[in-house]
Amino acid sequence: MRSLKLILLGAPGAGKGTQAEIISGKYNIPAISTGAIIREAIQSGTEMGKNAKSYIDAGALVPDEVVIGIIRERLAKEDCVNGFILDGFPRTVPQAEALEAMGVEITEVLSIEVPDEKILTRMAGRRVCPKCGATFHTEFKPSPAGENCPCGEKLTRRSDDDPEVVAARLETYHAVTEPIKEFYAGKGMLKIVEGQDKLEDTTALVAAALEG
Ligand code: ADP
Ligand code: ZN
Questions:
Q1: Angle at 202 between CA 157 and CA 58, to 5 degrees
Q2: Over 80: is that where the pLDDT of 1 sits?
Q3: Pocket probe mutation, ligand 1, options 169, 171, 178, max atoms within 8 Å of Cβ
Q4: Burial 11-25 (b: 16+ CB within 10 A, else e)
Q5: Is the pTM of this model over 0.85?
């Protein structure tokens, strides 16, 4: 299989993380989520985590230099040589420019698009495992272990999935992240997929877009 160096774009809750995990398994390449890396740092109480928490809880973006540093370190690791999926990075045009300045070659940019009203309902049912990081949805992707994760831990709601915070995150997405689409469209790299209600249907469209 050719090497895939993919950027997944899409509003918070559009299903990027879920699709990233599926593509990661299929192509055997790491799915890199800046959001997940930041949440881990918050949990383990590192300096970066402490710094980032106030931004995340307000539904704001973490400063560019912080996430650019995270990505620079992560992409330097051995497991990225045959490809990777970026989920949640870049999220601003300066981040996209920094990625280019690092000399990172991207092969595809895929935007998963879902209307805001749908996102608001989706986020209400989103659950995560605080221990292993697995993600579920009460309605669309229930855990086989009910209110627990298959790993045994009780599932929780992310603090930034609170409806008010979600509204702030959507606003930030449209104002600050969406312009990235133009950045990559201008390079002829942008593909768009309409996110479907059933995650398998989105997976099929994503697979077709990546193969096509
Ligand atoms: P979602 O895609 O559902 O918004 P993420 O897990 O990707 O969730 O991100 C959670 C939060 O982490 C974001 O709201 C933001 O505060 C921060 N974050 C993640 N990635 C970036 C990034 N590339 N730039 C700035 N902040 C980021
Ligand atoms: Zn778990």
A1: 30
A2: no
A3: 169
A4: bbbbbbbbbbbbbbe
A5: yes
